[in-house]
Description:
Layout: E1 10-13, E2 26-33, E3 36-41, E4 45-49, H1 50-53, E5 66-69, E6 73-83, E7 94-98, E8 101-104, H2 110-113, E9 120-129, H3 133-139, E10 143-146, H4 150-153, H5 161-167
Amino acid sequence: MSGTHTTGQLLVATPQIEEGVFARSVVLVLHHDDDGAQGLVLNRPIDADVDAVLPGWEEHASTPAKVFQGGPVQLDSALGLVAVPGDSPDPTGVRRLFGSVALVDLDTPPLLVVPVVAGLRIFAGYAGWSPGQLEAEIATGSWYVVGSESGDVFTDDPDGLWRTVLRRQPEPLRWVAWFPADPSMN
């Protein structure tokens, strides 16, 4: 199955996914290999302040400074993503995944991390796929696989991210951005 791995790319929910956390979602794939895949939904802020979950981190979080629902798995666990500029070495408590995107160890004191990163987002839970599951979902038309841009993870407009990502794609994919949320409105 190699060659179909999507690490570092975005999964954009097709209109076929009509309900649940994945409806109109944009998922950043953190890791994808023959053993499965893990990712984070980038556009599901929940009504929870970061400090309520992780005291000391909220003042450093990218706007909106809310906890985001990263997916349906392990909602009681928190993951932090940060942007590490350029070719700088990984700061204390930070592990680069690809490009400028890195995971942050949330047990690290924020003041060791924050001065050397460019964005911070906290996620509760994540999305996970067993071996072959994501490839099957892509093959059956549940996801568009597109390139990610650094601003996607830390967008200040999570509600508009699905449309924004689709609009920057070539036609005919970009037309999906105008697909009504309720197909009966068509």
